[in-house]
Amino acid sequence: MADIMPLKLLTRKSYDRLYYLGDMKHQVNCRVRIVGLGLLAWQFSAAPTLPAQTFTEYNIPTANSLPFSITTGPDGALWFTEWAGNKIGHITTGGSIIEYPLPHAQSQPIWIKPGPDGALWFTEQGGNRIGRITTSGSLTEYPLPTPNSEPWNIGVGPGGEALWFTEKASLQIGRITTAGVLTEFPVPLAPWDLTAGSDGAIWITERSYNQIARMTSSGHVTNQYVSPTPDSGPDVIITGPDKELWFTEEFGDKIARITTAGVITEYPVPTPASDPGCITVGPDGALWFTEHIGGNIGRLTLSGVMTEYAVPTPESDPMVIEPGPDGALWFTEFQSNKIGRITIP
């Protein structure tokens, strides 16, 4: 790790390098130390968080499983990945949990999303595979053509007939049909997250290069837009209720909106050095997001009004948040090994 900066320069920009060099457990341990030093560079006044009486938390049976992603399945339950536990989890809205072990060690399941075939599809960061699990727990895995590609996020693409995913290490965007047919598209960027836009294109965050890219379904990158905030670390991107794109700026402590024409607007998060990570559309039509370091769940209206809610467990590291089938929002607590639920006030 010869490229680590001197102590006085260890900010969240440095942490982004550590993220690529170390495994996720080390990344989490490094994050707090580095952000702690970086706080000198971010002088915002923290807004008070609201009471946490709207939260419910459920312990995951497997200890230290590091739950990462969560999504609503077609069976009316929530499905989640256990990065260190090497399992796919299933939790009902009543809090009953079932775990499905993956057949290969160190698969490191990371993102999970429902597919157009009624199954759940997920990426295996360590196993270099795309996985598929039915609601009855039947597993299928598809090895990727490029070795050590580090598949990351996955989701249904334009047209809704296939799933698309990012390959962080190989600088490619992958596409897989429900029959398991794989295609890889080399791209002139460092892809991180992706989503299908309302314009029929795929929109991609470039975390390392501080950009948002637009790619056609044929694999051609047409535009790249630089974030106004330097080194902001664009992370998760979604299509919002207004049909525009919304994304988190983890190192810039902002939520951003980009139109399909490329116009970017940013909204600062009240809590300093909060590391906003995942973002989703809530049942109330607002944008909801997690704050890794801040330990809050945030809410942003389309008019720019922002509210924060403190998660009951300190330093829980809320990771991915998604709307549930019960009208609430569900999220993973990466460090505290829990699944959280927050009702809409």
Series of H and E elements: HHEEEEEEEEEEEEEEEEEEEEEEEEEEEE
Strand composition percent: 35-45%
Specify the biggest β-sheet: 4 strands, antiparallel
In CATH terms, the superfamily of the largest domain is: YVTN repeat-like/Quinoprotein amine dehydrogenase
Write down the domain tally: 2
How far apart lie the N and C ends?
A: 46 Å
Q: How many separate helices?
A: 2
CATH topology-level fold name of the largest domain: Methylamine Dehydrogenase, Chain H
Low-confidence spans: 1-52
What CATH first level of the largest domain would be assigned? Mainly Beta
Structural class: mainly beta
Strand order of the largest sheet: 1-28-27-26
CATH architecture identity of the largest domain? 7 Propeller
Query: What's the mean pLDDT score?
Result: 87
Number of strands: 28
Cα radius of gyration in angstroms: 19 Å
> How much helix, percentage-wise, in residues?
under 10%
In short:
This protein is mainly β and 345 residues long.
Walk me through this protein's architecture:
- The chain has about 350 residues and is mainly β.
- It has two domains: about 1-40, no CATH class; about 50-340, YVTN repeat-like/Quinoprotein amine dehydrogenase (Methylamine Dehydrogenase, Chain H).
- It is built from two helices and 28 strands.
- The chain has helices at about 10-20, 25-40; strands spanning about 55-60, 65-70, 80, 85-90, 95-100, 110-115, 120-125, 130-135, 140-145, 150-155, 160-165, 170-175, 180-185, 195, 200-205, 210-215, 220-225, 235-240, 245-250, 255-260, 265-270, 275-280, 285-290, 295-300, 305-310, 320-325, 330-335, 340.
- The strands form seven sheets. Strands 1-28-27-26 form a four-stranded antiparallel sheet, with no helix packed on it.
- Strand 14 (about 195) and strand 15 (about 200-205) form a beta hairpin.
- Helix 1 (about 10-20) packs antiparallel against helix 2 (about 25-40).
- The protein is globular.
- The termini are far apart.
